[in-house]
Design a protein that fits this description.
Helix content is 5%, strand content 48%. It has one domain: Distorted Sandwich (Beta-galactosidase, Chain A, domain 5). It has helices spanning 58-68, 290-293; strands at 3-10, 13-20, 25-30, 36-44, 47-50, 72-74, 80-81, 85-88, 91-94, 104-105, 115-121, 126-134, 145-154, 158-167, 173-175, 178-180, 182-183, 193-195, 198-204, 210-215, 224-225, 232-237, 246-250, 255-261, 267-271, 279-284, 298-300, 305-315. It is mainly beta. The chain is globular. Keywords: Calcium. Monomer. This is Aldose 1-epimerase.
Length: 320
């Protein structure tokens, strides 16, 4: 059997790892930091390549997590909430934790300790399931809920991340969900290609909040070389477009990553950091500032659940 699961510590970081030994593929997850995706590595051109821009050690993780949010689970909201305030069901709420720019950002679970609740290995997959019960301990979100994240590694370097949000409280709750991984394919992003079926790009103001206007973004449908583009933008995806919702590629090597969803992540947020050695490709169920503009916000009744799924298909030069 080529699939297996291991527990280890690397550079001071405790990991749960899914393996496909037939391809030397390893998926690394950090349970105590929001069950984040820390690694997705395989052999490409004779070398082990981790396509996730990750934290090099525990010290860096502790220092940078709340600044970069690399690979974080974004829940109960992705991106920014203006001034950390919003109203729901006629009542105003203010988040305790704010980013330096004064907004609430990327939710509340990115540094929460998830529990491993299930592990399963078969001849065709390895699965690990993580759970966290949010105790309603931030004044800005006094709604208890359960977040269950399932990682599944399939043959051919296909990774599934499935999230189920359940309202465990006694009143309705607003919810948004997303992921914040940074992907790297070696070298600078300038030589990489990017393709996705955008219906439009949300216009942002200076605080990176949507203005309500939708701009054209047709050039991404046929694919572009990133070049010297600066990206910190959110796109509305074409729900009727077949195939991947995004493809990131490095033509000189033949390496690429295809992104697929179950339709529950209609927004795609892209960000290129100043070092330009990786790109954040964020599948979001809700637009930035969604508790205000209502773009993609989900309302869950008591006892109700919602499941959202994203797949990453890693294609090497040998198998693409």
């Amino acid at each position: 059997m080529s699939f297996r699961i291991s527990h280890s510590t690397a550079a001071g970081i405790p990991l749960v790892q899914l393996h496909d030994d037939s391809l030397s593929t390893t998926v690394s997850i950090i349970p105590h930091a929001g069950a984040m995706l820390h690694g997705f590595s395989t052999v490409m051109d004779g070398q082990v390549v981790n396509v996730i821009d990750h934290y090099p050690d525990a010290t860096n993780l502790d220092r940078e997590l709340s600044l970069s949010y690399k690979s974080s689970k974004l829940s109960p909201f992705p991106c920014r909430i203006e001034k950390g305030r919003y109203s729901f069901e006629g009542k105003a709420y203010q988040f305790d934790r704010l980013f330096p720019d004064g907004s609430a950002i990327h939710g509340l679970l990115f540094d929460r300790p998830f529990e491993v609740t299930r592990q399963d290995v078969t001849s065709f997959m390895a699965t690990a399931v993580f759970q966290y019960d949010y105790p309603a301990d931030d004044a800005g979100y006094p709604f208890p809920y359960r977040c269950v994240i399932s990682y599944a590694l399939f043959p051919g370097n296909k990774l599934q991340l499935q999230t189920t949000i359940s309202n465990t409280g006694s009143q309705k709750i607003p919810i948004g969900d997303g992921w914040h991984p940074y992907f790297q394919l070696g070298g600078q992003v300038d030589q990489w290609t990017l393709k996705f079926p955008a219906d439009g790009m949300l216009e942002f103001n200076d605080q990176l909040l949507p203005t309500g206007r939708m701009l054209e973004a047709d050039d991404f449908r046929s694919g572009i070389v990133i070049g010297d583009r600066q990206l910190d933008n959110c796109f509305l995806l074409d729900a009727n477009s077949p195939g991947p919702v995004c493809t990131l590629g490095r033509p000189e090597t033949g390496w690429s990553i295809d992104f697929f969803t179950d339709g529950q992540y209609p927004f795609l947020q892209l960000y290129i950091p100043p070092h330009r050695q990786s790109i954040a490709i964020e599948n979001l169920s809700m637009a930035p500032n969604g508790f205000h503009n209502q773009m993609g916000v989900t309302i869950l009744d008591p006892g109700e659940s919602k499941t959202l799924t994203v797949f990453y298909q890693l294609n090497t030069g040998e198998t693409a």
